[in-house]
Amino acid sequence: xxxPSQKYMSRLFRNGRAMFLAYDQGLEHGPKxxxxxxxxxxxxxxxxxxxxxxxxxxxxxxxxxxxxxxxxKVPLIVKVNGKDNIAKAQAEVEPFSPVVCSVxxxxxxxxxxxxxxxxxxxxxxxxxxxxxxxxxxxxxxxGLPVVGWMYPRGKYVENDTDPNIVAYGARVGLELGxxxxxxxxxxxxxxxxxxxDMAGRAKVLCAGGLKSDLNVFLxxxxxxxxxxxxxxxxxxxxxxxxxxxxVSKALEKIIFDNKSVEDAxx
Length: 266
Ligand code: FBP
Known about the structure:
This protein has 14 helices and eight strands. With 266 residues, the protein is of the alpha/beta class. It has a single domain, classed as Aldolase class I (TIM Barrel, Alpha-Beta Barrel), CATH 3.20.20. An eight-stranded parallel β-barrel has the order 1-2-3-4-5-6-7-8, surrounded by six helices. 1,6-di-O-phosphono-beta-D-fructofuranose binds next to α2 and α12. Residues 22, 24-25, 28, 149, 207-209, 234-237 line the site of 1,6-di-O-phosphono-beta-D-fructofuranose.
């Protein structure tokens, strides 16, 4: 199979657009991202189920232990590599995210797609690219879509939101066989267009980043869609909000109904 199967692809999209809820931060960032509600995976799953998310991103442990809460109700994207944030100084220089779940095991968990973070430009990139090769080729055997977190990072990357470097990251994802590319926002519509152009037939999703002002976050979402992105894969801007349903409903209107920010907030 040279492309992901329609069975899986059709589950991840509504009106050709995607809205994924990312919740891998417990491993990637640790408890500093959480408050007394959102540390609980059940709280996050309920947000996904009450709203129109087309995917829930988990590492294998949450996928296993909370299976009964989400299975069959929202598509699952299993993150197959990951790392914690404790050796931060080293990770800033030579980032590397090891494989923590095989594609075979993700399939057993009921995955509808697998996700892999590639730190593009890292001194350890060649090892990571070999890991991604195995993940991508194994995913193809099952017809599973591959979502690449294309994150340029490390001592050779001065600014990880520089439009040229984000566009390069997207291109690397296309060249290496990812089907969807999760990238950081470049700061403007014009610069993000280049990222979408470089991604070719791979679909571009924008990450959310640190929780920001709601209007700013929604404007960013409107902008990326206007220049051809397929949707978002966001976490903190939704589940760190005091009103996660308000944020989710506004996102739905922008992403699936093509509304303006103003209309989405009405
Ligand atoms: P957010 O919307 O919360 O930024 O989540 C997107 C994401 O890609 C997560 O999937 C991942 O855990 C995190 O950002 C990685 O963040 P960082 O850039 O700090 O490594």
